[in-house]
Design goal:
The chain has helices spanning about 20-25, 45-55, 65-75, 90-100, 115-125, 140-145, 170-180, 205, 240-245, 255-265, 270-290, 310-320, 345-360, and strands at about 30-35, 85, 105-110, 130, 150-160, 185-190, 215-220, 230-235, 305, 325, 335-340. By secondary structure, the protein is of the alpha/beta class. InterPro entries: Aminotransferase_I/II_large (IPR004839), HisP_aminotrans (IPR005861), HistidinolP_aminotransfase (IPR050106), PyrdxlP-dep_Trfase (IPR015424), PyrdxlP-dep_Trfase_major (IPR015421), PyrdxlP-dep_Trfase_small (IPR015422).
């Protein structure tokens, strides 16, 4: 049985190590997972009631068009209902974009250290990924623009960037979009947008009316705390969204996901509270890293990428033994780990464990 030749050596996506597995393997009673950028403060209190109301419909297929959620979200963003598409997480929207637009031999431009799903989906469709080095941990938009050629179908910009947490400003993004050829898609992944407090940050949705080749991705997995319900969305011009919808599988989001998202998106107080607590957590961690003499990238999402001055895989294992799960494995940054900003208690326990490892009181592997 012969598969597509381009997937033979394709790496399988490795999610953050599960809490249950670590407890079982190491015999630990408490494990803190700071590896997958989940919201440590949970989800809106409105979600439970919304899900309980859907239990009576558990035998029914979900609304394939997510009509009620679309109506609420269109009002929230001030866009047309025909400008929105939903997916099983925003990573499914990435896969659908690749499926809809890429043919073998097409080229797509992205950073060399960014969300890996862009490249893996391009690989599946036989497209060629042009990877441009980050500049100070940030997208080098001028260098990315220079790589756009006749075969380029799409450019990916993760803002804030995963894993570095850096942003490009509104002025930088607008200058870039002004120079990108109109036949090249620009996919702006704003999965962590709701966490950003920097006034220089761009609101991609506000740019859609000016740039018909722009698609903005958002998700309910991060600040809204609905990671297990797998629901994300894309916003773009109606004609572009229609093309992506043509390759979407029916019923790709659940009744529970739709109901929870609809309840969450209008709870502005919960989002604001999480944003404030996350900013406080970033300030605490930055202060601790400064005290420990560790450098880090400016964090604008709900995670920080920090240089621990030792092979990241070793630090991962040493922290794991103390019940702290972080994220290593960034080829361009072999001594960096990515750590999710947790609750105040979780952050303090992470720093205590990190300091023990760095001081040598806990042996590295």
């Amino acid at each position: 049985m012969l598969p597509k030749p381009q997937i033979v050596n394709l790496p399988v996506y490795q999610p953050g190590k599960p809490i249950e597995e670590v407890k079982r393997e190491l015999g630990l009673d408490e494990v803190i997972k700071l590896a997958s950028n989940e919201n440590p403060f949970g989800c809106s209190p409105r979600v439970r009631a919304a899900i309980e109301a859907e239990l009576q419909n558990i035998t029914l297929y979900p609304d394939g068009s997510a009509a009620e959620l679309t109506e609420v979200l269109a009002g929230h963003h001030g866009v047309g209902r025909d400008q929105i598409i939903f997916g099983c997480g925003s990573d499914e929207i990435i896969a659908l974009i690749a499926r809809a637009f890429f043919v073998p031999g097409d080229e797509t431009v992205m950073a060399d250290c960014t969300f890996s799903v862009y490249k893996s989906n391009a690989d599946i469709e036989g497209a060629v990924s042009i990877e441009v080095p980050l500049k100070g941990g940030t997208h080098d938009l001028d260098a990315m623009l220079a790589k756009i050629g006749k075969k380029t179908k799409a450019v990916w910009i993760c803002n804030p960037n995963n894993p570095t947490g850096t942003i490009v400003s509104d002025s930088e993004l607008v200058d870039f979009l002004d120079r990108v050829p109109g036949n090249v898609l620009v996919i702006l992944d704003e999965a962590y947008a709701e966490y950003v407090t920097d006034p220089a940050y761009s609101n991609g949705v506000a740019l859609l009316s000016k740039y018909p080749n722009l698609i903005v991705l958002r998700t309910f997995s991060k600040i809204y705390g609905l990671a297990s319900l797998r629901i994300g969305y894309g916003i773009g011009q109606a004609g572009v969204i229609k093309l992506i919808n043509q390759v979407r599988e029916p019923f790709n989001t659940s009744r529970f996901g739709q109901a929870a998202a609809k309840a969450s998106v209008t709870d502005h107080e919960f989002v604001a509270e999480c944003r404030t607590k996350n900013r406080d957590g970033i300030q605490y961690l930055n202060g601790q890293f400064d005290r420990l003499g560790l450098s880090y990238f400016p964090a604008h999402g709900n995670f920080i990428m920090v240089d621990v001055k030792t092979p990241a895989a070793e630090m991962f294992q040493a922290l794991l033994k103390q019940g702290i799960i972080v994220r290593p494995g960034f080829a361009k940054y072999p001594t960096h780990i990515r750590v999710t900003v947790g609750s105040a208690e979780q952050n303090a326990k992470f720093i205590a464990a990190l300091e023990r490892v760095l001081s040598g009181s806990e042996a590295r592997v």
